[in-house]
Design a protein that fits this description.
- The chain is α/β, with parallel strands linked by helices and 565 residues long.
- The chain has three domains: 170 residues, no CATH class; 88 residues, Translation factors (Elongation Factor Tu (Ef-tu), domain 3, Beta Barrel); 159 residues, Nucleotide-binding domain of ferredoxin-NADP reductase (FNR) module (Rossmann fold), CATH 3.40.50.
- 43% of the residues lie in helices and 15% in strands.
- Helix 18 links the parallel strand 12 and strand 13.
- Helix 1 packs antiparallel against helix 3 and helix 6 packs antiparallel against helix 8.
- The protein is elongated.
- The two termini are 17 Å apart.
Length: 565
């Protein structure tokens, strides 16, 4: 996909480059600026397209609506929506690449405006006189100054978006990325300067024509026919340092101009490109703010092993589907910062409670935990409703769609979790516990890989209840549970008599993915299996590769991966 998008942008760059290189309306400007004009305008067209589309993947409400809409019935089309984050990143990288070209071209243009200043075309010149310091064009004009500031903003956003920064200090990424609004406001001002102009009267003044009423005749070679009609207008030979006009080279005679060339700035096309997506994004943010301006009621906070915190809450008229996620915002932790968390429990017809599990890593989750628990080492705190004032205010935005909504729409699904990556599947398991017969899913392979034995206790009770329920309903083959302990000093088990069913499914080491896929394909011949993964990139890449590989059983695997957009 990234290669296709880059190729499309290169094609657009080339088409725009040829337009400005060959267009007669840009003849005089091209003579002054050279290739700098073509490169700057071609890169600007690519930037317009990507600045327009980069916002759409961040319209979470729109994506959730499309994913849940019956109009998008195709499973393949809905899977394309799962690539929203990839598309956003691809557009961002494209903006960075072509911004470098755009800036380099305009640096050359600023120098050419100064060196090639022509008194005959005062309105066409951005410089005020020949030899003017090009730095004045960069720092003393609206297009130049806004361009410099936009480069600095884009540099901050680009560097802070790298994986190293996001992992080491997410706050830097969050705050710098919100500078996008400043970037777009500067972009609106940047294109309003009208520095580059085109000729509007091509019929009355074809490029390179002869005007007998103008002293510009000194720069043109007049045909003998005109010397006889206008003997006072004989000229010197054409200067060697100026290019000979193409119309004169290609024709044996030259047209007579009826008026002077007139130049006009382009209407800022960027406004057309970005105004729609920007307004759509702003309207959505306003809608999300109104929807989430009422704090939720926290019913319980539970501290689990391995620094995992479970928060259960209630909210009026809150509805969600298994696999969706919400965005939590706690003003006492951070005034602007918020984070996405997958729902591990969805509200149903019989209960209004929903919840999330979050891993305590980083400053935000640490401060959030300390506010929720009276003592950070206390295992559980469950308070009555009338004492909820002890909890900080918590706002929930969402829910939003994710690939795991499709896990119940396959006849057979393979769910692979790594560590805390089990959270998307917890809501699916909770839903199956409430009732599985109304869904298309008829067999679920659940693979969970953890480093320590205590991590399995996060959802051990849920797995045991679902296992016992299916046995009672005579459907023990409905779910195939495999737990893998990747790091251990010896044989271990989940402590507790009620966890015997899980201990029999506990394996030491890592899964043999190729053998696992072959076994699943053999047991489900000529079926389409949904593969869902939430975990380390290493596991994700292996599963993606195996899903795309063929097998001798006619089984097709469709790969899906968690991606917060």
């Amino acid at each position: 996909f990234q290669f296709f998008w880059l190729s499309l942008n290169v094609w657009l760059f080339g088409k725009t480059f040829l337009l400005y290189n060959r267009g007669l309306q840009y003849y005089y400007l091209h003579q002054m600026l050279g290739l700098g004009l073509c490169v700057s305008r071609a890169s600007a067209s690519v930037l317009n397209l990507n600045c327009c589309l980069v916002l759409l993947p961040m319209c979470r409400v729109l994506l959730a609506f499309l994913r849940g809409s019956q109009k998008v019935a195709s499973k393949k089309t809905r899977r394309l929506l799962d690539k929203s984050k990839t598309f956003h990143v691809t557009c961002g990288v494209t903006i960075c690449i072509f911004s470098v070209l755009h800036v380099a071209a305009h640096l050359v243009n600023a120098l050419n405006f100064s060196e090639n200043y022509n008194e005959e075309f005062v309105t066409l010149n951005a410089a005020n006189y020949r030899g003017e310091d090009p730095r004045k064009l960069l720092f003393a004009t609206v297009p130049g100054l806004t361009g410099v500031i936009m480069v600095l903003v884009l540099f901050l956003m680009c560097t802070a978006s790298t994986y190293a920064i996001r992992v080491s200090n997410y706050d830097i990424f969050w705050y710098t990325h919100n500078l996008f609004f400043v970037f777009y406001m500067l972009l609106m001002l940047h294109v309003s300067g009208g520095v580059l102009k085109y000729q509007t009267n091509l019929e009355e003044h074809p490029p390179g024509c002869f005007n007998p009423n103008k002293t510009l005749r000194q720069n043109l070679t007049v045909p003998k026919a005109f010397e006889e009609l206008f003997p006072d207008y004989t000229t010197e030979p054409f200067p060697e340092d100026l290019p000979v006009p193409e119309p004169f080279v290609q024709n044996s005679f030259m047209r007579v101009c009826s008026e002077e060339p007139k130049f006009q700035s382009h209407f800022p096309e960027t406004w057309f490109w970005i105004s729609g997506p920007l307004c759509l994004y702003c309207v959505e943010r306003l809608y999300r703010y109104i929807r989430s301006n009422k704090p939720v009621t926290i019913t319980s906070v539970i501290s689990h092993p391995s620094n995992v915190l479970e928060v259960r809450m209630m909210k009026d008229d809150f509805e969600a589907r298994p696999g969706q996620y919400v965005i939590l915002h706690c003003p006492r932790v951070s005034a602007l910062e918020s984070h996405p968390f997958t729902l591990t429990m969805c509200p149903t017809d019989t209960k209004a409670t929903f919840g999330v599990h979050l891993k305590v890593v980083g400053d935000w989750t640490e401060r959030f935990r300390d506010l929720l628990l009276l003592h950070s080492n206390q295992d559980t705190e469950i308070l009555p409703i009338f004492q909820q004032r002890r909890y900080p205010k918590l706002y929930v935005d969402g829910p939003f769609g994710s690939p795991f909504e499709e896990s119940l729409n396959y006849e057979v699904s393979l769910c692979v979790a790594g560590g805390i990556g089990v959270t998307p599947f917890a809501s699916v398991l909770n839903t199956l516990l409430d009732g599985w017969k109304s869904y298309k899913l008829r067999r679920l392979y659940f693979i969970w890989v953890c480093r320590d034995i205590e991590s399995f206790r996060w959802f051990a009770d849920l797995l045991c209840m679902l296992h016992n329920k299916l046995w009672q309903e005579n459907r023990p083959d409905y779910i195939n549970i495999q737990l893998y302990l990747s790091q251990t000093d010896g044989i271990q088990k989940i402590i507790g008599e009620k966890y015997q069913a899980l201990n029999s499914r506990l394996l030491i080491g890592r899964p043999q993915w190729k053998l696992l896929f072959d076994d699943i394909a053999k047991c489900n011949r000529r079926k389409t299996i949904g593969v869902f993964c939430c975990g380390p990139n290493k596991i994700s890449k292996i599963l993606h590769k195996l899903s795309n590989s063929s097998n001798s059983y006619g089984t097709r695997f469709e790969y899906n991966k968690e991606s917060f957009s």
